[in-house]
Amino acid sequence: MSELEVELRRAMAEETAELRISPDLVDRAVRGSQRRRARAKLVAAAIALFATAGTGPAYLVATGGHEMVVEDVRAEINGVEVRYLPEGLVSPERAEVTLGDLRGESLRWSEGDRLVEISVYRTGRQMADAMDVLALNALPDPVEPAKGDGPVVSRDGTDRLWVPQPGVLLRVTASPSLKDDLDRIASGLRVQWAGDIAGMRVTYMPDGLRSSDEIRLVNDGLARSWSFNETDGVTVEVVYGLRAKDLKSLQVVSWPTDEQLVDLRRTSVRGSAAVEGRVVGAGSGLDKGWMRMWVVRPGLGVRIWASSDAAADLRRISEGIEPIKSNLLELVDGVGAPALPPELRKGAESQELGQHWRETTRYWGDRPGKGAYVAMSVYRGQAVDSGEWQQPELVPWLTDIPGATRQQAAVGGKSGTLLTWSETRRVNGMPRPLQGRRFVWTGETGLALAITTVVDAASSTAYATLDMDTLVRGIH
User: Fold this and answer.
1) How much is the pLDDT for 149?
2) Which CATH class is domain 75-191?
3) How confident is the model at residue 336 (pLDDT cuts 50, 70, 90)?
4) How many angstroms separate the Cα of 139 from the Cα of each of 119, 202, 213, 253, 297?
5) Per-residue burial over 86-120, b = 16 or more CB atoms within 10 Å of its CB, e = otherwise
6) CATH second-level architecture of 196-322?
């Protein structure tokens, strides 16, 4: 260890013992000193400046290649970091807020005639741009932005709303005495936390929890974890298929090691029956936190496993979990369907449950086996990304058409599996030769998609002109 590193570590330990520091701070400072020793003085000065300020977590940020500055996190609310506040504002009040039918959280700083309020709405809706914000009618006299992704601002300059990313709405309100700081406050907000998992959206987590944004295969489903440290935090698991057909099935957890659920009690989530209980080591009885679970609809369940220090927030977390919504008109299990010619009449929707997977299919045209049609299928669950997916002979949606030819292909810019086949069906009492094609590909972790076309070219111009590339590209 170099002399510089020893001195930096000692200084950090003495001066910032009570503060939370970015873990790789010293390592980054040392690497910088090796490249340009003159910058070591600037690093030391920055650390001294931070220790004097004592305002919260700090991160050294390279701004120009030749200098280092300290960027403080002044506060945090629902996964959004506040990097700038006017001087003199301390001790904010935290509150739940509403905006139309949206629920969110806010921090409010008030000192005399100086006021700043920052609100975060993890909407569960597809809030995509300024048009969605204007539709809320939140401001009585808004100034429409020049661009669709711009903020909506009140005419007096004291209120601003914008969508930094789909599903997140931010609002900053300032008193007239601080309206000149509004832009700087808004530009200092950083959205650090995302909560989409396999078609579900987590809209609330307690402050201090961090997610790696990795979707993992765990137990029986797909999960994302938020953690305080290496051992404590919250894991939200989305379960598809037969294991989630009802609440009794969902309680049979495939534990990762040796756990069991005890002290079960009934509760509810958004009106749906739920259960929760303590998780303990099966042999040792060691406390491993709490779990709450419920079935959103047959074939779709949610489990939350929280360490003991986060168990008090189980109710709030579970109430904030909901299917991702969209303003698209035609949806199949939350995925936007491609546009089809108006002469194709809409068909029925079917659903099938398997081990660790669920299939939802919508048909347009004749019923399968009765003539020409188009179908879009959405497959969700752990099976999509398990080893079975790498063995096509074990995947139902690649083997349910006897005699189909299967090959790897690129369609509509996607890589996947293409099945082709021929069949003869009686259409209007007459035997007709039909040509079938199905293209299957993975969209994201735990999600596979398929487009199927069965064409009778001799009698249906609408189907004959359908192009598989266009259909695949048309899925949102």
Assistant:
1) 76
2) alpha beta
3) confident
4) 15, 27, 34, 48, 37
5) beebeebeeeeeebeebbbbbbbbebeebbbbbbb
6) 3-Layer(aba) Sandwich (3.40)
